[in-house]
Amino acid sequence: MSLYIEGLGAVATPCSRMAQFQEVMRQQLEASMDKELEKLLSVTEGADVEVARKDFEGFKKLFHRFLQAKGPSVDWAKIHRPPEDSIQPYERIKARGLPDNVSDCLDKLVVVKLNGGLGTSMGCKGPKSLISVRNENTFLDLTVQQIEHLNKTYNTDVPLVLMNSFNTDEDTKKILQKYTHHRVKIHTFNQSRYPRINKESLLPMATDLGTMGENADAWYPPGHGDIYPSFYNSGLLEQLISEGKEYIFVSNIDNLGATVDLYILHFLMSQPNGKRCEFIMEVTDKTRADVKGGTLIQYDGKLRLLEIAQVPKAHVDEFKSVTKFKIFNTNNLWISLSAIKRLQEQSAMDMEIIVNPKTLDGGLNVVQLETAVGAAIKSFDNALGINVPRSRFLPVKTTSDLLLVMSNLYSMDAGSLTMSEKREFPTTPHVKLGSSFTKVQEYLSRFESIPDMLELDHLTVSGDVTFGKNVSLKGTVIIIANHGDRIDIPAGAMLENKIVSGNLRILDH
């Protein structure tokens, strides 16, 4: 079966007979998929079946579009830089100041955090949002503290909504009990659960709707673009609109820079009714570390998000250039609730499919069909980018990132991290910790206390290395323990522009 499927994708002939043949093949594949999905529903009972049936409707639409796709999703010749006024500098937004009554604006806002991810890449079990990042506070703790501070300061009622996945929902709901007495209303809804498909047969690998045993790897949450149908289907979207809410501020829960910005909120709320901006994407200047990040382009007269997966191979280097594409998407988004409702009801939400191939532990090659929340920007009216300071993009993806946010580079106030005033320049140091530090528990065991990093520019650590208490790192510090060697940086040590190698020699850099 795989032979003709692969051929199907490669064929590009004007011959109408071949086109008819391809269409017949597509119809057969869709019929086979429908049959398999019905079979999965038939072997399960209870409430799960109705939830799965709704999920499968969304999956079938995505699968249909996947089979229809021909070649790259963008024509490189049609890509243009966005017009000047379509990406506003943050300074211009901030210069407008704040209204007399900030609470009126806040009363129309909902904060949504994308909470579908697990902490497995950092060696942790359960939701990533429950990893401690600062003074024993988790990502979720910091989020709740930030919103509670807003609600108390402005006597308002900004709710928090968590978009969970089937991987994170149960553990998250257990932990939410601890916030019962906080001044934040917390709602949750689940994103869809889609079946992984066998790359060869293009059929689901699941044998029933369960997620244990042989079906443990059979399901996946289909990317954060799924927020639109899942939010709508949950009934929560309608409920929030009926409560007078107008906009959601959406961000990844592991981006510690994604706090509610009152200037952007005021800008949104002060637009004239006929020209209300329905979608704002926060972008920031690209550095060499961000070359793979999605960027905003003008395409067919609309602002559009271009991801590296959509770029033809011949143009990947051009895409990574920091001169042609100067900004990237932070995934901090401000979106109109009524616009989401309208687009969902008109089935007009247009997002490119991300085809994500994976190889499971047993060697089986599977495909995940996903979408990205920012890709819908072209469906909304009067969409804008705002070029925000880098401080609004502080993601914690690795223990190297964790070291930065745990250090004295940042001070914390009401759940928000800000760069310490004692640091003389605003850029964060480049930190690269080796494989011995990948898992959070291993990483923590290697630091008796987090070093002073106020004057650090660059840190590379590789091999079996530990740090004593009150170590200070300045300038460029490189510590490399060769295989079989161990390096213990003694308590109170001050390393400035030093290379420390396997035999514990400390050299000037």
Summarize, please.
The chain is 28% helix and 26% strand. It has 14 helices and 26 strands.
Radius of gyration: 25 Å
Low-pLDDT residue spans: 1-12
**Fraction of residues in H or I helices:** 25-40%
The total count of strands amounts to 26
Mean pLDDT: 90
- Spatial arrangement of strands, main beta sheet: 1-17-11-14-10-2-5-6
Structural commentary:
By secondary structure, the chain is α/β, with parallel strands linked by helices. The protein has helices at 2-10, 16-42, 47-68, 90-95, 102-106, 139-153, 169-176, 227-234, 236-242, 262-269, 316-320, 337-345, 399-406, 440-445; strands at residues 87-89, 109-115, 132-134, 137-138, 160-164, 186-190, 194-195, 197-198, 219-220, 247-252, 279-285, 295-299, 302-306, 327-336, 354-359, 365-370, 384-387, 410-413, 416-419, 430-433, 452-462, 464-467, 472-480, 486-489, 494-500, 506-508. It starts with a helix and ends with a strand. Helix content is 28%, strand content 26%. It has an eight-stranded mixed β-sheet with strand order 1-17-11-14-10-2-5-6, with helices on both faces. The chain has a five-stranded mixed β-sheet with strand order 20-21-23-25-26, covered by helices on one side.
